[in-house]
Amino acid sequence: MYNSDSVTDKRIIGTSERREQIIQRLRQQGSVQVNDLSAFFSVSTVTIRNDLAFLEKQGIAVRAYGGALICDPSTPPVEPSLEDKSSLNTSLKRSIARVAVELIKPGHRVILDSGTTTYEIARLMRQHKDVIAMTNGMNVANALLEAEGVELLMTGGHLRRQSLSFYGDQADQSLQNYHFDMLFLGVDAIDLERGVSTHNEDEARLNRRMCEVAERIIAVTDSSKFNRSSLHKIIDIQRVHMVITDSDISAENLEGLRRSGIKVVLAGK
Q1: Residues 120-151: b if buried by 16+ CB within 10 A, e if exposed
Q2: Is the pLDDT of residue 171 over 90?
Q3: What keywords is this UniProt entry annotated with (predicted)?
Q4: Which of 16, 80, 166, 208 could form a disulfide with 157 if both were Cys (CB 3.0 to 4.6 A apart)?
Q5: Cα distances (Å, whole numbers) of residue 217 to 68, 190, 198
Q6: Helix 34-41, helix 45-57: angle, nearest 10
Q7: What's the pTM value of the predicted model, to 2 decimals?
Q8: What are the residues facing 218 on neighbouring strands?
Q9: Residue 1 included in any domain
Q10: Residue 124, CB-side half-sphere exposure with 13 Å CA sphere
């Protein structure tokens, strides 16, 4: 919590001044928390999240669980750990996974990108038969161990312990001689103009290769990932064939996706 030596007092201030003072806190502390800022400035958490979204679009901050981190141009953005990601919006991810897994039929060849939503898809594939699944995610592979009707392929490569995912030349080469019916692409950030992006350059490169060898690209993401962009672009939004998300997606994003010819499925509806 902030003390009396904080940058400002609790008088009512305007949006621009509040955002300037949030920037000062980011520079001083390296990170800020939504609840702390809400209490300090006597505004709603929604207002603070809008402030942080604005600062992220300006390249000043990168949002993280419960707050935001300073975006230092000299260092890559800080990526939340897999454990932190797993604790976020779990019920939504499971709802999305239930929709996604219904798309997988006998005879299908699928790629499951590394990630927490694709992990939930893998958990539901234990009763599937005559399916080939390739993944670069160690957690996803572990979830498929009990799926006896699924032939499991791993990309191999170098392990990123931060995300329990494999990357590198070996992973790229393992994909180039295959053709898949669909790719379930986990999403760190998705924006109608900036496309689909992720924190890590090597993972972005591997994700692009996955998109090249898949007939259909299906983005699986909860609505909190919209209007966000990470440093490394994967693909333009128009390359995506389907988005499976939750009903909290904004009307603007929903209409924008549909205008781009993308089928949108809302989990739970």
Answers
A1: bbbbbbeebeebbbbbbbbbbbebbeebeebe
A2: yes
A3: DNA-binding, Transcription, Transcription regulation
A4: 166
A5: 30, 14, 16
A6: 120
A7: 0.71
A8: 184, 242
A9: no
A10: 19
Residues 42 and 169 occupy one common structural domain: no
More confident residue, 184 or 177: 184
CATH number of domain containing 56: 1.10.10.10
Q: Phi and psi of 71, rounded to 5°?
A: -100, 95
Closest CA to 49 of 88, 71, 18, 77: 18
Element (H, E) at 92: helix 90-101
With beta carbons less than 8 A apart as the criterion, state whether 268 and 230 touch: no
Q: Report yes or no on 3 lying in a domain.
A: no
How many Cβ atoms from other residues are within 10 Å of residue 157's Cβ?
Answer: 19
**Tokens matching residue 94:** 């499971």
Co-location of 65 and 149 in the same domain:
no
d(CA 269, CA 259): 20
Neighbours of 111 (CB within 10 A): 28
Does pLDDT of 259 surpass 60? Answer: yes
Concatenated DSSP letters for 178-224?
--EEEEEEE-SEEETTTEEEES-HHHHHHHHHHHHTEEEEEEE--GG
Range of the domain at 64: 15-70
| Tokens standing for residue 124 | 């539901």
Residues 64 and 169 in one domain: no
